[in-house]
Amino acid sequence: MKASSNRPRITNNLETPMKKLRLLAILGLLTALLGCASWQDGAWSSEPVTDEDIAALATSRLNSDTMTAAATLSVSVHNGMATLHGVVPDRAVRQRAVQILKGTPGIFDVLDRTRLR
Questions:
Q1: Within its chain, how far is the Cα of 42 from the centroid?
Q2: I want to staple 55 with a disulfide (CB 3.0 to 4.6 A). Which of 7, 16, 26, 77 is the partner?
Q3: pLDDT tens digit string along 42-94?
Q4: Helix/strand/coil (H, E, C) string of the chain?
Q5: How far apart are CA 92 and CA 1, in angstroms?
């Protein structure tokens, strides 16, 4: 006759909770990395989503810059392509305006339609 063992069977019960915890940690990390906010200019800010939002941000940046604020400029954006219109006093201001637009989130290229005064 075979003696039956009264010892409890050892199972790996930690495997399922650890897998769930690992999956939860990965999902949390992905959410943080792919979230809608970004770190820019030393502060958290939401990136612009529509062409109008991008154009508004670009215009705000142009108006805040000491070199381009005095120029008469307007910006339109279509699918990430910015078009810069207006009158600039010299080539340096034109170059600075284009540089500001190229550094604006959501703008991938700039078409310069400015005129020299």
A1: 14
A2: 77
A3: 565 566 679 999 999 999 999 999 999 999 999 999 999 999 999 999 999 99
A4: CCCCCCCCCCCCCCHHHHHHHHHHHHHHHHHHHCCCEEEECCEEEECCCCHHHHHHHHHHHHHHCCCCCCCEEEEEEECCEEEEEEEECCHHHHHHHHHHHHCCCCCCEEEEEEEEC
A5: 99
Least confident of 4-13, 19-28, 67-76, 95-104: 4-13
Is the model more confident about 9 or about 116? 116
- Angle made by CA atoms 77, 82, 86, in degrees to the nearest 5: 100
For the entire predicted model, the pTM comes to 0.61
**Pick from 94, 66, 51: which is nearest to 84 by CA?**
94
Torsion sign over Cα 101, 106, 112, 117:
negative
Q: Is residue 31 predicted with pLDDT exceeding 90? A: no
Which residue segments constitute the domains of the chain, with CATH numbers given? 47-116 (3.30.70)
Q: Which two tokens stand for residue 65?
A: 């810059």
